[in-house]
Design goal:
heterodimer; A: 252 residues; mainly alpha; 79% helix; globular; B: 252 residues; alpha/beta; six-stranded mixed sheet; three-stranded antiparallel sheet; 9 strands; 32% helix; 25% strand; binds adenosine-5'-diphosphate; binds magnesium ion
């Protein structure tokens, strides 16, 4: 039987309260040194300190810049090439082996080359994000287009929409919106991880600020940036879901 | 008039050439209601595809008296599955064939609504396809075909997937529609009783490769009764020919 809503909500709340209570108790009771694990009650003050010094805002902006530009470029390239490959036998046959060769390489394995080519720079961060996001979107778009019902293509032909462009916009794209959106959303998360990874290597932004704090053992600042990352990603993902649900209103 | 002359169609594959249709011949007068019956797999759908220009014939021609008219399409198809685009509202589905004809938005909308009116679904214009019953979806598919004002309306077992009651209702609606619009209809079915009930002429497609095995004129005046004795006689004669118990050309 389904649990009542109120009960489920109170259980979730209880979980959160317990989580913070244990976290607070560990350093307070001296079970863990507060330098290793800062108590949550001290975090808001640290947070405010970071914000008022301007360090927080700058780091957030820098990270978002890497994130957005890498994400947009990687996603656009991935979706465009995936769709094109899905629509063209020639392109599919041509790219077949290249894709098989490059695909298994994880995005972060490109870090050495990114640094050799671009140095520790925003461009390097962008490159790593683009590579990671590209493959996710390339494959989701490719398989989405290949999975479009042949009958719908026949329908488009029967009603005069025979050019590749007409087919693309009347049938193929709308029919594959859902899987393409799923790929975009996965990319959203991957790109965020790539941003932080690139910044941990020294590119300016949230990750770099976090590394600086950790080398000074300022763990409370580290926690501030961990929370910031979680929140920023949460906001971006929620925004994306809202947009997706609008686009897929016909599913409801 | 639409003339189909010596239509031959073969498919080439690795295992050689399969001739599906051979020297198919048919003249369709304006306003005529023709049914094509035949065993499953004989080539009925292929015939419609060739006439609609979805498949190029190996040889033979399809010609129309009517010149190409702006704002119309010469052929329109209704499939067995309604094949509506789930991401378009009902009225936008009906507009599908009107797009790309150089019509302005209001004209498209008006013609789509007129077509929906014809099939009695004007009040469902703003629904999503998944909110309709099977019979309603098929009526939307008919409206979509009528909206382009075709010289020839082709229907491929359009009621084959519906329950008996819905099917009979739609058969009567179709005859009514045909009489009101004066459209020329080519109706494919494997249900001989349905063919005889609806059509002026019933073409039996048989053989491998398939050709016109027989043509029966159904003289029963309209409105017709479902238990009409002459019609039943014609249906039985076609059935006998189809199962090969009677030698060619007996007819009625
Ligand atoms: N694209 C195709 N390639 C090869 N053979 C085909 C193709 N389309 C149809 N056929 C063959 O043509 C024959 C007629 O098919 P179809 O027209 O669908 O029959 P029906 O509609 O009368 O059931 C079948 O034997 C089918 O296998
Ligand atoms: Mg068929």
């Amino acid at each position: 039987m389904a649990r009542p809503r109120a009960l489920r909500l109170s259980l979730s709340l209880l979980g959160v309260v317990l989580f913070f209570a244990v976290w607070e108790a560990l350093p307070r009771l001296g079970l863990v040194k507060s330098m290793l694990l800062p108590a949550p009650s001290g975090i808001p003050a640290t947070f405010w300190q970071e914000v008022s010094s301007g360090a927080w805002g700058e780091a957030v902006l820098q990270s978002l810049r890497h994130y957005v530009s890498g994400l947009v470029l990687g996603s656009a390239l991935g979706v465009a090439l995936g769709v094109a490959t899905g629509m063209s036998r020639t392109l599919e046959d041509m790219t077949n082996w290249i894709v098989r060769l490059l695909r298994p390489i994880p995005g972060l394995a490109w870090v050495p080359f990114a640094i050799i080519w671009f140095g520790v720079s925003p461009t390097a961060a962008n490159f790593i994000i683009i590579v990671g996001v590209f493959w996710i979107n390339y494959f989701s778009a490719l398989s989405a287009v290949q999975a479009v019902d042949r009958d719908l293509i026949e329908l488009a032909n029967a009603f005069g929409h025979r050019s590749p462009l007409a087919r693309l916009f009347k049938v193929i794209l709308p029919a594959s919106v859902q899987p393409i959106m799923a790929g975009l959303r996965t990319g959203l998360g991957q790109a965020w991880m790539a941003v932080v990874a690139a910044e941990l290597f020294g590119v300016a932004g949230l990750g770099q600020r976090m590394m600086q704090a950790s080398s000074l053992l300022a763990t409370d600042i580290v926690v501030v940036y961990m929370i910031t990352m979680a929140l920023l990603y949460g906001v971006v993902d929620a925004g994306f879901v809202a947009l997706r649900d609008r686009l897929l209103a016909w599913k409801a | 008039m639409i003339s189909i002359k010596d239509l031959t169609l073969s498919f080439d594959s690795d295992r050689g050439r399969t001739i599906v249709l051979k020297e198919f011949h048919l003249d369709i007068a304006d306003g005529e209601f023709i049914a094509v019956v035949g065993a499953s797999g004989v080539g009925k759908s292929t015939l419609l595809r060739v006439i609609a220009g979805l498949v190029k014939p190996t040889s033979g021609t399809v010609t129309r008296d009517n010149p190409e008219t702006p704002g119309r399409r010469p052929y329109a198809l209704v499939f067995q599955d309604a094949r509506l685009l789930p991401w378009r509202r009902v009225v936008k589905n009906v507009e599908f064939g009107l797009e790309g004809l150089g019509l302005d938005k209001q004209t498209r909308r008006r013609r789509a609504l007129d077509a929906l009116e014809l099939v009695g679904l004007a009040d469902k214009a703003d629904r999503w396809p998944h909110q309709l019953s099977g019979g309603q979806r098929q009526r939307v598919a008919i409206a979509r075909a009528l909206a382009v004002d075709p010289d020839l309306l082709m229907m491929d077992e359009p009621f084959g997937a519906l329950d008996a009651i819905t099917r009979q209702g739609l058969q009567d609606e179709l005859v009514d529609l045909w009489q009101r619009t004066g459209k020329t209809i080519l109706f494919v079915t494997h249900d001989i009783d349905e063919a005889v009930y609806l059509a002026d002429r019933v073409i039996l497609l048989a053989g491998s490769p398939a050709g016109v095995r027989s043509t029966d004129r159904v003289a029963t005046p309209r409105p017709r009764q479902r238990d009409d004795a002459t019609a039943r006689h014609t249906a039985n004669a076609i059935r006998d020919r189809l199962s090969g118990t009677v030698v060619d050309g007996e007819g009625i």
